[in-house]
Amino acid sequence: MAALPRRIIKETQRLMQEPVPGISAVPDDSNARYFHVIVTGPEDSPFEGGLFKLELFLPEDYPMSAPKVRFITKIYHPNIDRLGRICLDILKDKWSPALQIRTVLLSIQALLSAPNPDDPLANDVAELWKVNESEAIRNAREWTRRYAMDN
Amino acid sequence: MEDTMTSSQGGESDMDCSDNEYYDEYYYTLNDDIDIEQIDPRKIDPEYFEFNCLFEEQVDRLLNETVETLSNMHQISPSLAKVLLHSHQWNIQEVTRKFKENPTQTLIASRIKPPSPPISLTFSRYINCPVCVTSQSFDKFYSLSCAHMFCKDCWTMHFEVQINQGISTSIACMARECKVLAPEDFVLKHLHRPNMREKYQQFSFQDYVKSHPELKFCPGPNCSIVVHSQEPKAKRTTCSQCKTIFCFRCGCDYHAPTECQVIKKWLTKCADDSETANYISAHTKDCPKCHICIEKNGGCNHMQCYNCKHDFCWMCLGDWKSHGSEYYECSRYRENPNIAHESVHAQAREALKKYLHYYERWENHSKSLKLEEQTLEKLRSRINQKVMSGLGTWIDWQYLFTAANLLAKCRYTLQYTYPYAYYMDGGSRKELFEYQQAQLEAEIENLSWKIERAETTDRGDLENQMDIAEKRRTTLLKDFLDV
Predict the structure, then answer these.
(1) Fewer CB atoms inside 10 Å of the end CB: C or N, chain B?
(2) Using CA atoms, how far apart are residues B148 and B161, in angstroms rounded to an integer?
(3) B418 or B331, greater pLDDT
């Protein structure tokens, strides 16, 4: 693999030195483009108290192309599907090379605080979120307890 | 298929002017007469359409002329003129009007300028590029009108990544949430690899043609022709290079009298598998007399109910005794007047029945068209034999090819009348349509019969039949083609 671009080195250093509150992102020992991410469920959200594992990969043409991010921990959320894929505009058409790993992870954390059932990825979850929000929130809490709280 | 729909339609071939003075005079008077009557081809021929087939260089010239006009008019660079025109469907009057009304707003709406004026603050000799986080001297940095500075290498990389994704005219600034577009000159300044420059120009060309309402790519395989018409309507267009016939508006197979959206709906419906599933589930009918459920398990349409022994037609559910005397009674679809009171299952069956009625006829004419192509081939070899054995010349038999072409043209229109009828609301207009459709169908079958037996048919008789069929076709189109 070609030498790591200065941009990635700088970003990694800053993530280590000044980590974002509630988020940890550690590069893999064997691949500096692959990050092990843990996001804590935001306060006052049904995900509160949970620790959510994600994987983040910087593609060859990063930062001209967006990083690839996926939830590994199961989560009950209208914009995240069964496979952990995330529906977030800045990961797709709204990506800008001026955005960073840090800003992407902050946006994902914000998505946990403010689910958007009008732009769904998981249709069944979004549907319930719209017709019976309290039940959907109960489900999200239950999933957080079951999948994001062990260890 | 015949290609008489070019701009030359209606004009007679150039007559040879003889040197005989008397004849000259006669010829000119005749010409004057035509001038007085001056028939508008649009009125006689509902399918009349003026268009030109252009090569890429000709399209480039056409686009560049518009760009130059706008650029000179408002003293802006050709690149910016291109962005403005592209965002206004190449309507130069519209751009000019908006530009005169509010130039700033026009530039913002076309994503040439940022919504609020940029704040430029860096005047130091070295800048840190926010993308590659490398500090470089000021002269290595470039920005669009929004003043977001990035180093030239990052711009190059950004453009290359975007172009590799097929994006060209809509590449924006790299800054977060900045919508300002990179105009052509700015992009080309940063592209050094020849294949990248070529790709960029190719993709932009496609974007420009697609945004131009008067231009359409020929849908023919590997054909690079662009058709230009100042009257962008759903009319029949024939490519001068590959001879593909298509609708100018939607680029699909020509579909008069059916509209673009309707034919799209119809073709989707025909391709939809759910219709097949529906077909299987609804492959039963109730006996019209005792209403017991009957499954059709043979080819014959003459059904006898095993329960009440009633004889009926599977096609129209009419009594078999009175059936067969009136041919077209079975071609016209009759809605069940009591359908609203029937069960959901019966309604589904009814909907499917209606669809299948039209689908079968649509499919049947499509097959006939293909079969008639074979007839034409046979005809060709038979005529060849005749010419070889001295029975007339090639020219003597040309009228048969004209007839076969006309037959194909008529049948093609007939095929496309079925989706039209399927989506039509019931009422007197539909009755008129189906009456004309039946008339056209009958004349087409007559013509087909006469062409198949060409040698024994009198030429005058055949030409008469051609005339009748074509008149029926144009009458139907005049009354129902709405473009």
Answers:
(1) N
(2) 19
(3) B418
Over residues B401-429, the pLDDT tens digits come to: 899 899 999 999 999 999 999 999 888 99
The verdict on residue B392 lying in a domain is: yes
- Give domain limits for chain A: 6-147
What pLDDT does A62 receive? 92
Asked if the Cβ–Cβ distance from B157 to A61 is below 8 Å, we say: yes
What's the ipTM? Answer: 0.84
Name the burial class of residue B354, with classes exposed (0-12), middle (13-18) and buried (19+) by CB atoms within 10 angstroms of its CB: middle
Chain A residues with CB under 8 Å of B148 CB are 98
- DSSP E strands in chain A: the ranges are 23-27, 34-40, 51-57, 68-71
pLDDT tens for each residue of B341-390: 666 667 777 888 888 888 888 888 888 888 888 888 888 888 888 888 88
Q: Which of B131, B160, B177 comes nearest A97 by C-beta?
A: B131
Residue B273 has a CB neighbour count (10 Å cut-off) of 7
How many CB atoms are located within 10 Å of the residue B163 CB? 22
Q: With an 8 Å Cβ cutoff, are A96 and B133 in contact?
A: no
The CATH fold of domain A6-147: Ubiquitin Conjugating Enzyme (3.10.110)
Q: How far is A44 from chain B (nearest CA, A)?
A: 29
Locate the chain B residue with the closest alpha carbon to A61. Answer: B161
Domain identity same for B381 and B445: yes
